[in-house]
């Protein structure tokens, strides 16, 4: 009975925290389906009288949101997949292969994680210009693959460093080479952690703004986050269209998170058990 009573404050605190996180999204959703007149008359906290979808439609057409959405999906999906593969390969060499200077290599990846993106803007801009990749989606994919893989390598190296050596030795005795050990043993066992990284990499890349803003100046190459920032900086929009823009910008990431929620939960649970 005492244990149950002690859980109530924690439950109440979690419910309050969830409300604080969900409430802004609900307010944005309500205002996105209001007409400008209704918003002016009743304010942002009133419930909508009906569904006014002209704001969503006008914003979609104004920024060619379908193209921006496709760009963000391509960039985020490619970065997530490539960064996970690169992280697995690096972590396999560091965590299981035990390369020389392992500590210094991991320190380098930690440094890559804490380095602010503002310090990378000019070098990346200059190198992309020299390589002929400026204002291409490929340039952003390459940059964020390296950045995300630095974190993934650091995390997976710690996980694979604790991988049971007996399993690996047994596989080698059975005739498995290094690639077979990696893809048939290490990757399947580490799949929950890899799944978590895949979800995080996609969402992190989707929300990136500074580097895509600098690297993607053409309207056909811009991502969703850049399109939202550039539009609000250059053109005047009413409040309902602004909320419609925010809703359309965050909704795909929420859908992706909900689709892969079980993968994320399972990965975190497995990590906690370990």
UniProtKB/TrEMBL annotation:
ABC transmembrane type-1 domain residues = 69-260
Q: Which UniProt keywords apply?
A: Cell membrane, Membrane, Transmembrane, Transmembrane helix, Transport
Q: Which GO terms describe its biological process?
A: transmembrane transport
**What SUPFAM superfamilies is this protein classified in?**
MetI-like
Any Pfam family the entry gives:
BPD_transp_1
Q: How does it sit in the membrane?
A: Multi-pass membrane protein
Q: What is this protein called?
A: Carbohydrate ABC transporter permease
Species of provenance: Streptomyces sporangiiformans
């Amino acid at each position: 009975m005492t244990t149950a009573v002690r859980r109530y404050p924690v439950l109440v605190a979690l419910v309050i925290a969830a409300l604080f996180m969900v409430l802004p999204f609900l307010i944005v959703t309500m205002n996105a389906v209001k007409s400008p007149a209704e918003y002016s008359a009743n304010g942002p906290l009133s419930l909508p009288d009906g569904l006014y979808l002209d704001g969503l439609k006008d914003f979609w057409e104004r920024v060619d949101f379908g193209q921006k959405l496709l760009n963000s999906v391509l960039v985020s999906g490619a970065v997530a997949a490539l960064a996970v593969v690169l992280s697995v390969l690096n972590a396999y060499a560091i965590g299981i292969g035990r390369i020389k200077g392992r500590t210094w290599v991991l320190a380098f990846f930690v440094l890559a994680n804490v380095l602010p993106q503002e310090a990378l803007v000019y070098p990346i801009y200059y190198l992309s210009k020299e390589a002929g990749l400026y204002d291409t989606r490929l340039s952003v994919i390459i940059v964020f693959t390296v950045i995300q893989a630095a974190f993934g390598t650091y995390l997976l190296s710690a996980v694979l460093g604790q991988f049971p050596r007996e399993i690996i030795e047994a596989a080698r005795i059975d005739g498995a080479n290094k690639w077979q050990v990696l893809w048939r043993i290490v990757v399947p066992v580490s799949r929950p952690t890899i799944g978590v990284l895949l979800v995080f990499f996609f969402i992190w890349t989707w929300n990136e703004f500074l580097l895509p803003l600098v690297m993607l100046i053409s309207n056909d190459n811009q991502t969703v986050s850049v399109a939202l920032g550039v539009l609000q900086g250059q053109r005047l929009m009413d409040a309902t269209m602004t909320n419609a823009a925010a809703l359309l910008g965050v909704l795909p990431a929420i859908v992706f998170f909900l689709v892969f929620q079980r993968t994320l939960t399972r990965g975190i649970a497995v990590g906690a058990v370990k």
